[in-house]
């Protein structure tokens, strides 16, 4: 057996260390994008982010590493959007109404009863309208939309009281997102809007701090709200898009070719999410009923009328004169 000198041993050790360190150096050179979401990891929205991240890593050869943070790990909805605006966070998926606190016009695309159906929403969000809203978001707040997801049709739930008509909403403590258009909708029904961050919702419902809430069926199911709510009321009051937002300064530092790959991956994952939510929506009311919820199908027009009588006019100055009618014509 050949005896190894101390010099040879040290040289071999150094070579081995360099070999081990090389992948770490390469990883350290990857651009890390942190992508936050308030939804639980079981919801299609964070799942689509994980799918996009894998695609981005593969297509960029590891140059871009997208890290997903679901379930409100990085703060409330407002906190996460503010973090993207400041650059403390790279990306977030959030509702348009929430972003309306930063660029007022944006909240119109999550307004109650603005959309005739999901196809109408899709048409509008592929029109020049979205480019105009994106331009305002970039110029005013240093954020950019790079994707749009279908989040679902929103319905009411109630813990103890059956909601058979809009009259049953009088005095009802309804949890709503921390958004003015949602509060105005609840007030039009005669309810008492109670703004609350989504991460606090299950506990608030279980303790009776609020009487009920409103969300799409996949959200109600993934957050297990059927455990703390007895009634599912199919009001279909809002068709919700959610937007993938990125910090503009961080975005501009990425080479154009890689930006194109990121957008393509986000779009591909969004298509998967849209189809997944649409598929879930087909059967979730029955699934929730089998789980113990009582499903109520109220007169939707009775819920629609008081909202349309007040909300569009109330927010016209915020959204811009004529924008509601323009969207209705798309």
Structural write-up:
This protein is an alpha/beta fold. The chain has 15 helices and 9 strands. The strands form 2 sheets. Strands 1, 2, 3, 4, 7, 8 and 9 form a 7-stranded mixed sheet that branches. A two-stranded parallel ribbon has the order 5-6. 42% of the residues are buried.
Summarize the structure.
With 330 residues, the protein is α/β, with parallel strands linked by helices.
Low-confidence stretches: 1-6, 9-27
Mean pLDDT: 92
> How far apart lie the N and C ends?
83 Å
Alpha-beta classification: alpha/beta
Report the strand count: 9
Q: What's the shape?
A: globular
Strand fraction? 15-25%
Largest sheet: 7 strands, mixed
How many individual helices? 15
What order do the helices and strands follow?
Answer: HEHEHEHHHEEHEHEHEHHEHHHH
Using the CA coordinates, give the radius of gyration. Answer: 23 Å
Percent in helix: 40-55%
């Amino acid at each position: 057996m050949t005896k190894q000198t101390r010099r040879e041993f040290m040289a071999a050790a150094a070579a081995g260390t360099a070999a081990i360190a090389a992948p770490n150096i390469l990883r350290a050179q990857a651009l890390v994008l942190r992508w936050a979401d308030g939804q639980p990891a079981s919801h299609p929205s964070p799942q689509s982010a994980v799918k996009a991240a894998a695609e981005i890593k593969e297509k960029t050869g590891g140059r871009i590493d997208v890290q997903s943070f679901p379930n409100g790990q990085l703060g409330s909805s407002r906190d996460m959007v503010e973090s993207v605006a400041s650059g403390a966070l790279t990306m977030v998926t959030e509702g348009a109404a929430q972003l309306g606190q930063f660029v007022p016009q944006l909240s119109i695309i999550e307004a109650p009863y603005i959309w005739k159906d999901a196809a109408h929403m899709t048409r509008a969000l592929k029109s020049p309208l979205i480019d105009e809203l994106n331009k305002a978001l970039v110029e005013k707040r240093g954020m950019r939309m790079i994707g749009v997801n279908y989040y679902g049709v929103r319905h009411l739930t109630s813990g103890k009281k059956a909601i058979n008509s809009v009259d049953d909403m009088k005095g009802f403590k309804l949890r709503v997102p921390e958004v003015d258009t949602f509060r105005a909708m609840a007030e039009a029904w005669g309810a008492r809007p109670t703004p609350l961050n989504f991460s606090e919702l299950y506990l608030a419902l279980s303790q009776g701090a609020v009487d009920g809430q409103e969300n799409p069926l996949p959200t109600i199911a993934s957050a297990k709200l059927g455990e703390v709510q007895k009634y599912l009321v199919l009001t279909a009051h809002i068709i919700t898009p959610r937007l993938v937002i990125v910090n503009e300064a961080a975005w501009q530092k990425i080479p154009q070719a890689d930006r194109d790959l990121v957008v393509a991956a986000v779009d591909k994952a969004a298509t998967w999410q849209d189809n997944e939510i649409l598929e879930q929506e087909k059967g979730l009311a029955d699934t929730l009923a089998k789980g113990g919820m009582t499903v109520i199908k109220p007169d939707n027009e009775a819920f629609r009328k008081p909202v349309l009588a007040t909300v569009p006019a109330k927010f016209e100055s915020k959204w811009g004169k004529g924008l509601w009618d323009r969207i209705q014509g798309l």
